[in-house]
Design a protein that fits this description.
Distance between the termini: 52 Å
Oligomer: single chain
Radius of gyration: 23 Å
Number of domains: 2
CATH topology of the largest domain: Rossmann fold
CATH class of the largest domain: Alpha Beta
Mean pLDDT: 89
Strand content: 5-15%
Number of strands: 5
Helix content: 40-55%
CATH superfamily of the largest domain: P-loop containing nucleotide triphosphate hydrolases
């Protein structure tokens, strides 16, 4: 993976290249941004830039397979794997990880968990992984130059592991570069953040996403433009939208059932029971689908708000079930949108962290009823 394989982010690429050219590479850096913005492929391209400064063909060949001896990876894992009682570390799934990065570099943590079939397990970066990292980085560089460690999902590092790595991040061995990659820095302890140079990776603009869809998925200009606007700066989401038309129809049916039931909750006695049944239906699918559905709901509400404010050029949603967006739009103003988005994002947060789906979605459905009926 090279810089040209990373969509957009030209200003960040130039900055990273200049740090290598001027030998001003910070020993600890924190890349923060949504996975769909390309934060992981950006870190991998930067690692190639550092390790292959001599531009040798052998170095690039090794990086093409993510198998350079001085490039190390760490990522969230369950406490143990299979029937083994030994502590799980990233080395166990290194082959699967390399394949995942090569084929799904914009993928999320749930995508990774699904790839290695650990969706129902609590994955973190634990102290056993921290010990392995320290052991690897204590060794001399194989090629005699830099060693680079990429820690993906650094915001899933537990406190014990973070404290274990603190000294290493503060004073790593000579010519050792540590790149932490995270969707958010909220769960990274301050003592680590304060020792890192922070690179904030923004959402991608729609034009960049559209170009990526045309290049990699051979979509038409019209198709890619519509999907890119829908994706809200997230290339991973755009790829999913391009592949999940049947799923979108199911999501629309769930959404319409939800808001219609919420609207009649004041006058229909059975509405609360209907909302609980709705929550049970959504909770019955896997967590990844729940999260995609809740993101779909955020976008549906956003489209309704744009229509309410007469921003017709930005409205691309055309419900297939006969649901009239123009009649729904007046109920979604800016203030309601803020409340709706917070409720949905909170639900996503809790589901990502293995909360009980029935409880989270029931609370969400009742909370949405209050919002829609508020003055």
């Amino acid at each position: 993976m090279q810089y040209q394989d990373v969509l957009g982010l030209d200003h960040i690429k130039k900055h990273l290249q200049s740090t290598v050219e001027n030998s001003r590479i910070a020993h600890a850096q924190l890349f923060v941004g949504p996975t769909g913005s390309g934060v992981l492929p950006l870190a991998v391209a930067y690692a190639r830039n550092i390790l292959c400064r001599d531009n040798s063909s052998s170095c690039h060949a090794q990086l093409n397979n993510l198998a350079h001896p001085d490039l190390h990876f760490s990522f969230p894992m369950p406490a143990s794997v299979g029937s083994s009682s030994s502590k799980a570390t990233s080395d166990i799934f290194l082959a699967e990880w390399r394949e995942f990065v090569k084929t799904n570099s914009y993928g999320s943590l749930p995508d990774w968990y699904k790839a290695i079939d650990i969706e129902k397990k609590n994955a973190e970066i634990r102290v056993a992984e921290a010990q392995l990292i320290m052991k690897k980085l204590s060794l001399k560089s194989y090629e005699g130059g830099y060693k680079v460690l990429i820690v993906w999902g650094a915001d899933k590092m537990n406190t014990e592991a973070a404290n274990k790595l603190l000294k290493l991040i503060e004073e790593p061995p000579a010519n050792t570069i540590i790149l932490l990659v995270a969707e958010s820095d909220d769960r990274i302890i301050n003592t680590i953040k304060s020792r890192c140079q922070i690179i904030n990776v923004p959402k991608l603009n729609a034009a960049v996403i559209a170009q990526g869809l045309q290049k990699h998925l051979q979509l038409t200009e019209s198709q890619s433009s519509i999907i890119a606007r829908q994706a809200d700066g997230d290339y991973r989401k755009a790829v999913q939208f391009s592949q999940n038309s049947a799923e979108d129809l199911q999501f629309e049916e769930w959404f319409v059932q939800w808001v219609r039931t919420a609207f009649v909750a004041k006058t229909k006695i059975t509405a609360i029971s209907d909302l609980m049944n709705w929550a049970n239906t959504i909770a019955a699918v896997n967590r990844e689908t729940q999260i995609r559905f809740l993101n779909y709901c955020i976008e549906f509400f956003r489209q309704a708000m744009l229509k309410n404010y007469k921003a017709e050029s930005a409205v691309y949603l055309s419900p297939q079930s006969g649901f009239d967006l123009s009649k729904f739009a007046p109920f979604v103003d800016g203030n309601r949108m803020l409340e709706v988005q917070k409720q949905l994002q909170d639900a996503i947060y809790h589901i990502e962290r293995n909360a009980n789906g029935k409880i989270v979605l029931t609370d969400l459905s009742i909370g949405m009823t209050r919002i829609l009926h508020s003055k």
